[in-house]
Amino acid sequence: MNDIVIRLETESDYREVEELTRNAFWNVYKPGADEHYFVHTMRTHPDFIPELAFVAEKDGAIIGNIMYTKAWLEDEAGTRKEILSCGPLCVAPEYQRLKIGKLLMERSFDVARKMGYDVNINFGNPGNYVSRGFVSCKKKNVSFYQKGNYPTALLVCELVPRVLDGKEWMYIASTAADCCEDVAAVEAFDKTFPDKEKKWMPSQEEFYIYSHSSVVR
Ligand SMILES: CC(C)(COP(=O)(O)OP(=O)(O)OC[C@H]1O[C@@H](n2cnc3c(N)ncnc32)[C@H](O)[C@@H]1OP(=O)(O)O)[C@@H](O)C(=O)NCCC(=O)NCCS
């Protein structure tokens, strides 16, 4: 895997990244996928951070990518701190579990720290993130929607160790992903790609459980 280059996304990569995202997410979290539409619209959202949109390239083909938006944490006094939210993150199915996701995270974390960011939050499958420094939001006192609500899938990574210590926080997400609630727009965009069969996969039930549960103790 020595011939993998991690570099910033350019405008000429956009469609290839959307194709990759569609293929990597297809049927994983729902029959079909909407993450490619999220990627497509995110780039014009004010919370998008182009300096952290990285691709993994091998032999001239894009085989992985990671993107970020701004998000916020609010303390008990109502003071807001700007943080990062990563995602989508994906690797082409034929290259998964070869540490390319790890490379994308490590490179983007390094740049994020240099930009002054100290926290990264992701709503995702814990299995993909706990070995990369992410912990349950409960361990960092980060609530979502209401105080004391700690979603199982809400994962917190301190880019600077212990930076969240000593306070209780409320997570405020970007509105960037709200575009996916427009099912007709997602469908119309998806039709610009080749047909692909939508079907049920066990990973969908697994993520339903993670995304509809909370850590209570
Ligand atoms: C999630 C994803 C980006 C990970 O990228 P990757 O290059 O395959 O991952 P890596 O090889 O860097 O590491 C994966 C981590 O997942 C876990 N993992 C590894 N093999 C695994 C397996 N067979 N099953 C479940 N988890 C596994 C481990 O925690 C591993 O960390 P480790 O290096 O400490 O063992 C990629 O699998 C993907 O694109 N999946 C589909 C889209 C997706 O779900 N994106 C994330 C949104 S939450």
Structure, described:
There is one protein chain. With 217 residues, the protein is α+β, with helices and mostly antiparallel strands. The protein has a single domain (4-175, 199-211), classed as Gcn5-related N-acetyltransferase (GNAT) (Aminopeptidase). It is built from 5 helices and 9 strands. Strands 1, 2, 3, 4, 5, 6, 7, 8 and 9 form a 9-stranded mixed β-sheet that branches. A hairpin with a 2-residue loop joins β2 (54-58) and β3. The longest helix has 15 residues, at 100-114. The radius of gyration is 17 Å and the shape is globular. The termini are far apart. The site of coenzyme A (COA) has 19 residues, from α1, β4 and α3.
What is this structure, in a nutshell?
This protein has 217 residues and is of the alpha+beta class.
- At the fold tier of CATH, the topology name is Aminopeptidase
Question: What is the residue-mean pLDDT, rounded to a whole number?
Answer: 97
In whole angstroms, how far apart are the ends?
41 Å
User: What's the helix count?
Assistant: 5
Task: Please give the largest β-sheet.
Answer: 9 strands, mixed
The global form is globular
Helix fraction, binned, reads 10-25%
For the record, the count of structural domains works out to: 1
Bound ligands, named by name, code or SMILES: coenzyme A
In the CATH hierarchy, what is the superfamily? Gcn5-related N-acetyltransferase (GNAT)
**Quantity of strands, as a count:** 9
